[in-house]
From TrEMBL:
InterPro entries: Ig-like_dom, Ig-like_dom_sf, Ig-like_fold, Ig_Fc_receptor, Ig_sub, Ig_sub2, Immunoglobulin_dom
A Pfam family matched in the record: ig
Matches recorded under PROSITE patterns: IG_LIKE
Keyword field: Disulfide bond, Immunoglobulin domain, Signal
Protein's name in the database: Ig-like domain-containing protein
Domain (Ig-like): residue spans on this chain: 1-80, 95-173, 183-267
GO CC annotations on file: external side of plasma membrane
UniProt superkingdom: Eukaryota
BP GO annotations: cell surface receptor signaling pathway; immune response
SMART domains to which the protein is assigned, alphabetical: IG, IGc2
């Protein structure tokens, strides 16, 4: 009796499936291959080829699904084996891979850290492969690729079967990562001339991007050792508060002329925190009491 083995029994579209028919130790066997019933002989084509005891399905399609059997015969001796038991071939579409960028900011700046995540349906053990412009840059059993610092490129991902390294999923959507130069915060002061008791509003922004920032506020003072110094030590800065704000504005009520002077800000976002360059100083003047 013939014995039929198939590798793999469950294939994805486009894969190669190999059927092997084993009859016994005698030589000189030729083989007949059946699909779905013992009267339907498999038709050979560009995708379906035979060599000896092997029948190969190239670029498997859903139409290749079904029950397969084989039979051996030695024509010169008019010997035929018993037809093999049926073996099922299933052909499935590859799972879809979805690539996302975290955090999903429209602008990424030089030195920032980003994470690409590859989500693929299905519980099979797979490795996740990440590509930049078609070149493999990272593989791991976890679906995330952390890029620190972020690099320019056109990124895609796909799943690979862990047992043999073959392609498991479709190739994902592409994400274009364009890394911009480090930005500088922009500070504005309103109003710039104050009467006694007036408040002043500092507004801080990042021209290239409005997403995800928190803001830090500083007063300029004469250069002082031990304080953060800017502009080649032409002045130092001290924080206006112990913490940052998520609001892009900060209100002061100056206490006389002592609050007259310069102010700067910067912005930060992400984990780890990525800081912009400090703003240029802005000034307001108070007439005092």
């Amino acid at each position: 009796k013939a014995t039929l083995t198939i590798t793999p029994n469950t294939a994805y579209t486009g894969e190669t499936v190999t059927l092997t028919c084993s009859v016994g130790s005698d030589s000189g066997w030729s083989y007949t291959w059946y699909k779905d019933n013992t009267k339907k002989v498999v038709t050979l084509s560009g995708r379906h080829t035979t060599t000896g005891a092997t029948f190969t399905i190239n670029r498997a399609a859903e139409s290749d699904q079904g029950l397969y059997r084989c039979q051996g015969e030695i024509q010169s001796r008019s010997i035929s084996s018993i037809i093999s038991d049926p073996v099922t071939i299933s052909v499935n579409e590859r799972p879809v891979a979805v690539l996302t960028l975290q955090p999903n900011w429209t602008q990424i700046f030089s030195g920032e850290t980003v994470t690409l995540r590859c989500d693929i349906q299905g519980g099979e053990e797979i490795e996740y492969a990440f590509y930049n412009s078609g070149k493999l840059v990272y593989t791991k059993t976890e679906p995330e690729y952390r890029i620190s610092p972020a690099k320019n490129g056109l990124y895609t991902c796909e799943g690979l079967q862990k047992r043999n390294g073959l392609k498991h999923s479709q190739t994902s959507n592409a994400i274009q990562l364009t890394v911009l130069d480090k930005p500088q915060a922009v500070l504005s002061v309103s109003p710039q001339w104050l009467n006694p008791g007036d408040s002043v509003t500092l507004s801080c922004g990042v021209k290239e991007s409005s997403t995800g920032w928190r803001f830090f506020w500083y007063r300029t003072v004469p250069y002082t050792a031990g304080l953060l110094s800017l502009s080649d030590r032409s002045y130092s800065v001290e924080p206006l508060s112990d913490s940052w704000t998520t609001e892009d504005s900060y209100t002061l009520i100056p206490a006389g002329p002592s609050h007259t002077g310069g102010y700067v800000c910067r912005a930060g976002r992400g984990d780890p925190v990525y800081d912009t360059l400090y703003s240029e100083p802005q000034f307001f003047w108070s007439t005092g009491n």
